[in-house]
Amino acid sequence: MNFAFSEEQEELRSAVRRFLADKSPESEVRRLMATPEGYDHAVWRQMADQLGLQSLAIPESYGGAGFGFVELAVVLEEMGAALLCAPFFASAVLAASALGTCGDEEAMARWLPGIASGETIATVALVEDGGRWDLDAPGSVTTKARTSGGGWVLDGHKSFVLDGVVAGLVLVVARAEGGLGLFAVEGDAEGLSRASLPTMDQTRKQARLELSGTPAVAVGRPGEAVPGLSRTLDLAAVGLAAEQVGGAQRCLDRAVAYAKERIQFGRPIGSFQAIKHKCADMLLEVESSRSAAYYAAWSAAEGSDELPVVAAMAKAYCSEAYFHAAAENIQIHGGIGFTWEHDAHLYFKRAKSSELLFGDPAYHRELLAQRIGI
């Protein structure tokens, strides 16, 4: 087993890092998070046409580049460091994974090429107002799917839908006869209404959807979606863990740089033991979280049976490591760090929203305990 990145993977990292340094400085993050759509159309096209990022982990047979989850984790780590404002995670990670695990060849051939090219922005609508990510929890999914005129229609609502306002394709989890199903809804479908949610972290837009007799297409067999959705959530947790590592590393870098340049009592504050210990603890957590995220990404790429266990472990640990790094970055910056205008708060807010996305650390620890038989 080789945990070193290949030369090609390192070149990918360098190319993405250069691109994001140019296209996603913090001034641009602040501009985009204040817009209704939350992303730059021109940059989205460049991501697809110049770097092929949206196609990276999609099989070549469906218009993708055919790389694996390790390469996707490399890209997500860099995006997390840059706080990229774009529907990449919703479309190229979450929705692409849902289609890739559904077992429906017709659905994959119909929608994956558009996601790969960047022409289609897709997302998954799973959670409702209760905020439960547990597919087996009673009442977690109340949106109903029913047959009508030879097709399907949906009734209900979904909350916390990533990039739900701009998505041209929404994969909705709904309850059909016999169990949960996955259904594709076009963004302009009749009976679909969408509204942005005023969340704390506006670098990643979320929406609430209302479905009223909304026409839909079944993806896979209605009532048999749970295995594919469970794997989709595991893959999403691994991708988010990689993104969290990037954000945590950026917080550490900023904290260390400030500790070296900020002078108090005639010496850099980094020379004081309390600050040294904070930075050392952050370094330990960042490196440990990186190891967890990389191993989980390798497990996803290899189709390992360990994926459910390591996905839960990585999401729990990386969530806490990122939030702690973001909070300590503010502490080390002192008074200026506590102002909302300081860039440290962009990472703090992203760290908090990422901590809760797909379930908080306590939820994933419970998943981990269940999956290892405790």
Task: Give an account of the 3D structure.
The protein has 374 residues and is of the alpha+beta class. Helix content is 52%, strand content 16%. It contains eleven helices and nine strands. The strands form two sheets. Strands 1, 2, 3, 4, 5, 6 and 7 form a seven-stranded mixed beta sheet that branches. The protein has a two-stranded antiparallel ribbon with strand order 8-9. A hairpin with a 2-residue loop joins strand 8 (263-264) and strand 9. The radius of gyration is 21 Å and the shape is globular. The chain starts with 6 loop residues before the first helix and ends with a helix. 51% of the residues are buried.
Task: Give the helix/strand layout.
Layout: H1 7-23, H2 26-33, H3 41-51, H4 69-82, H5 88-100, H6 105-117, E1 122-125, E2 144-148, E3 151-162, E4 169-176, E5 179-186, E6 192-196, E7 206-219, H7 226-261, E8 263-264, E9 267-268, H8 273-302, H9 307-333, H10 344-356, H11 361-371
Parallel strand pairs: 1-4
Antiparallel strand pairs: 2-3, 3-7, 4-5, 5-7, 6-7, 8-9
Helix pairs in contact: 1-4, 4-7, 4-8, 5-6, 5-7, 7-8, 7-9, 7-10, 8-9, 9-10, 9-11
Concise structural overview:
This protein has 11 helices and 9 strands. It is of the alpha+beta class.
Q: Span between N and C termini? A: 28 Å
Strand content: 15-25%
Low-confidence stretches: none
Radius of gyration: 21 Å
Under CATH, the topology of the largest domain is which? Answer: Butyryl-CoA Dehydrogenase, subunit A, domain 3
Chain-averaged pLDDT? 95
The CATH architecture designation of the largest domain is Up-down Bundle
What is the CATH H-level superfamily of the largest domain? Butyryl-CoA Dehydrogenase, subunit A, domain 3
The computed structural class is: alpha+beta
CATH class of the largest domain: Mainly Alpha
Number of strands: 9
Number of helices: 11
- Specify the biggest β-sheet: 7 strands, mixed
Global outline: globular
Order of helices and strands: HHHHHHEEEEEEEHEEHHHH
What is the number of independent domains? Answer: 3
Measured as a percent range, the helix fraction is 40-55%
